[in-house]
Amino acid sequence: MNIGLYFGTFNPIHVGHLIIANYMVENSDLDEVWFVVTPHNPFKKKKSLLENYHRLELVHLATENYDKIKPSDIEFHLPQPNYTVHTLAHIADTYPQHTFSLIMGEDNLKSFHKWKNYEIILEHHHLYIYPRVSEGKIETQFDKHPKIHHIKAPIIELSSTQIRNGIKENKNIQPMLTEAVWKYIDEMNFYRK
Question: CATH says 2-155 is which class?
Answer without folding.
Answer: alpha beta
